[in-house]
Here is the input.
Amino acid sequence: MSEQRDKMTFALAVSGSGGHIIPAVKVAEELIAWGHSVVLTGDFRSFASLIERKGLQGFPLDVCGYSGRSPLSVIKFLYKMLKSFFHAFHLLRSRRPDCVIGFGGYGSVPAVLAAVVQHIPTLIHEQNVYPGKATRLLRHFVQKIAVSFQETQRYIPSKTVLTGCPGHTPQGPYDTKQILDGLGLKEGLYTILVLGGSQGSQRINNCWLQSVPFLLQRMDYQVIHIAGEANYSQVLSEYRRWKVSACVLPFYEHMDQIYCVSQAVIARAGAASVTEFLSFQLPAILVPYPYAGGHQMENAKVLRDAGLATVVEEKQLSKEALVTAVETLRRSTQTRGARDFSARPGAGEKLADEILQFAGKSLD
Here is the structure.
């Protein structure tokens, strides 16, 4: 951690997906632990309850994404952006933060631009390898850009600092038996974690559930399935139908515990997820979301190049593809040594430290 300064106030601008919200929450917790004040603003969507549970001050903005599918949608997008800009402008003027940090996505844009107009020091964090639209727009106005992957610096050659993507990090040592007991699962059984993103992925859920009985004919295993709120009941009933040992959850906050008891994960390739799998050395079957501008495929390549991932494109996703990928992954990981779950500094601490240094220099 950099030299402690007097108490400062920070505004974190977010958009409403786990890939944007979770890194912001991790950084907020670090800054608060170091004695500073933090407010969050932007599009919270279903994460408003998480922000409230964490005891963070949240000021939501009514923003919508840009689809460009009709003149009406364009007008709606521009109207909400302009309205949110003025709301963010008044929020920043009343709170007078020492620095504004944007965490990507359309929901963060109004607050970052409001900060630029008011000459408040601004820094943005890009989670993905290939920069998103918000970063590509805002990079021209902000003073500093923190990136999660070294590969990102090919696309943004200036203003960048490599911090990693804040997320769940090993907090060991772990009592794996106690964790598995709490989940209703057995120790010593091959454990597959299934993730569909913060909102749950219908495609991954459906294809995986179709593969369950076929995989049962080939190996013994148990499942931890984070299904999302909308899919929870249907997913739970399917496991009961096949009589598979499974813990089905709509959402789970302490993901580090889940990672440490899993031997493989099936998931999308969001930046936060990829960096967490890398941190936990968790072998993965990644199904990049194809409608994210190619971002997730670039993220997946990082894990694949590290020898930790098999990548299955959405158009190739099927029950047969998942069964084959799981069997291949299990054979390849049986020769690996034990994973290291010892605690070590994470990207949240690094980014929070960089923010403090940046804000301090701006105030000097």
Q: What stands out?
A: Residues 71-95 form the longest helix (25 residues). The first strand starts at residue 9 and ends at 14.
